[in-house]
Model the fold of this input.
Amino acid sequence: MTKEREILNLRHIRVFLEVARFGGISAAADTVSLSQPAITQAIAKLEATFQQGLFVRTSSGMFLTEAGELFRARADRALELVSQGCDLAVRKQSRNLPARKATFDQQITSTQLRALLAVEHSGNFTLAARHIGVSQPSLHRVSRDLEAVSGLRLFVKNQQGIDLTDAARVLAQFSKLAYAELKLAFEEVDATRGVDSAHLVVGSLPLARSFILPEAINDLTRERPSVQVTVVDGSYDDMLFGLRHGDIDFIIGALRDPVPIEDVEQTALFSDRLGIFARTGHPLANKRRVELTDLLSYPWAVPRFGTPTRRFFDALFEERGEQAPGRLVDSGSLVLMKGVLKGSDRLALISEHQMREDLANRQVVRIPFDVSHTARPIGITTRRNWKPTRTQQEFMALIREAVEKLV
Done:
């Protein structure tokens, strides 16, 4: 997608929505304070960007095409997100004052939001200007214009460069969510002319990477080879940040209890249990009864702090009055943990589903120690009020099919 398509002119979007609401240019002219030729030109630019008509022109008025209806739904959501961001930014800066509603959401421009996001990304006016291909004085001026129109303090100097205030961070978050809606608008409108430009971005925790996601991706791209899929891995906190800022469509993996923050929601797909595993031939493998003291006698490979599995590992010993063993290999990489496990006498607490192929190939064995209490829900985490595209819905249906094969 080109830069032109990524960053639509907010004023053009507002014009489009007013023409759609009134069914014509002349009726919309008064509400947007533009001349009829300027409105005509704005609509023409949008249609050129989408490469198809958004309106059918008749003697009785202008009516939305199928593409126009799709764009209107996403455009409404995008501008509502900008408005919410403006309101929340005002509240952030005025937290000790009576709540007031932002009045600048109709004046804010795409250029200003682009500058805000560039500074957030780079932490420096010079680097931000380079990032979006404008001069540093120009970006600095636009950033100060945003502060002037909003009445908010958005940028503060720090030792490394420029930081965003809390108000600016909120505005940046909702701006990203708005642009995520417009990105989906392009995908949906492109589909009406037979162009498959869908791009899925999925945050994946370790469990889903071994079978569920590969199965769903292969099934989707077999039928739709043009679909692009990006799988993001990393820590849960990083992926949650990406989800809440519109960089990730949804996260699949172990769900959190309680839900980590109010603006996301979780949907369980199945329940997964953990098991204690070791290499084939491990001294504990043939022991009829394994005691806690046996588990304390060996080093372990464990997930990072903060993960549900790590909490189960720590509780395994703490609930029995013992301190968790030391000599740990601590990693978020399942591949590394398996490699360490198979080449040493270490033990590991790992998902049964993640180890099923290794068990079938007799590369590892399950240690006979009861951890049946470790069942945890696996599922999908999305933004609250998220409206998935047909492609996203199709992909999640394929994920559910993969889960059925797994369980």
User: Anything to note?
Assistant: The chain is about 50% helix and 15% strand. The longest strand covers residues 264-272.
